[in-house]
Write a structure and sequence with these properties.
The chain is mostly helical. The chain contains nine helices and two strands; from the N terminus they run ααααααβααβα. A two-stranded antiparallel sheet has the order 1-2. The radius of gyration is 19 Å and the shape is globular.
């Protein structure tokens, strides 16, 4: 290897070690409980890092769009496809602008956790993209459009992300127990959503909103 290329290699190695500490505290050193870290990593890995690259980028959202539209039977060019595409790209832009601290076009685990830790301090002051994603997920799960999510609708969406239908069903039962009904309306969904990202109690019903029963 010539001197020039060797220098470039050394510089890359140095930057890979320095950048995570310049733009964010390593996840293990963040003041977040292990329980909440597990929840944040779960959502990161299953619902956002669709191509399992270790970071979130625009390609993950494009893959998610195809997954969602395939689930609903919305082909490219239809109004539903266009609406889903526009919503998801808006959500990505909002996420990138807030969480991508080093402006590399990707959101790392550390950047992701740091952002949601800020949310947990004051969930009533959520970022616009977070509120938009919450609404998007509710509308996606409310396939019938009747204003509430039932167990079959919940299983349909969560299982398309690779989760076992049986676990999704159990998660919904635990999640919906707070209302004593077989459906979850939007107001209840919002409360459960906030609880997922803030709760330290594993038995809180909000912890099951993403289809997993244990962390």
């Amino acid at each position: 290897m010539d001197t020039f290329n060797y220098g470039k290699t050394v510089l890359r190695e140095m930057m890979s070690r320095v950048m995570p500490r310049v733009f964010g505290v390593p996840l293990q050193n963040m003041p977040i409980s292990d329980f909440r870290k597990k929840k944040l990593l779960y959502v990161f890995n299953v619902f956002f890092d669709v191509n399992q690259s270790g970071t979130i980028d625009r390609k993950d959202f494009e893959l998610a769009i195809e997954k969602i539209c395939s689930l609903r039977g919305w082909s490219s060019g239809t109004e539903q496809y266009k609406k889903t595409y526009e919503s998801m790209i808006q959500i990505w832009d909002g996420l990138r602008q807030r969480a991508d601290a080093n402006k590399d076009g990707q959101v790392s685990v550390e950047e992701w956790a740091s952002m949601w830790n800020e949310y947990a301090k004051n969930p009533e002051n959520a970022l616009e993209w977070q509120t938009q994603y919450l609404r998007f997920m509710f509308d996606l799960e409310d396939a019938s459009g009747d204003g509430s999510i039932d167990v079959d609708e919940f299983i349909s969406v969560c299982s398309c992300y690779g989760l076992e239908p049986s676990e999704c069903k159990e998660a919904f039962q635990k999640m919906s127990c707070v209302s004593g009904k077989k459906e979850v309306n939007y107001e209840q969904f919002v409360a459960l959503w906030k609880q997922f990202f803030t709760s330290e109690n594993p038995s809180d019903p909000g912890n099951f909103i993403f289809g997993k029963t244990k962390f």
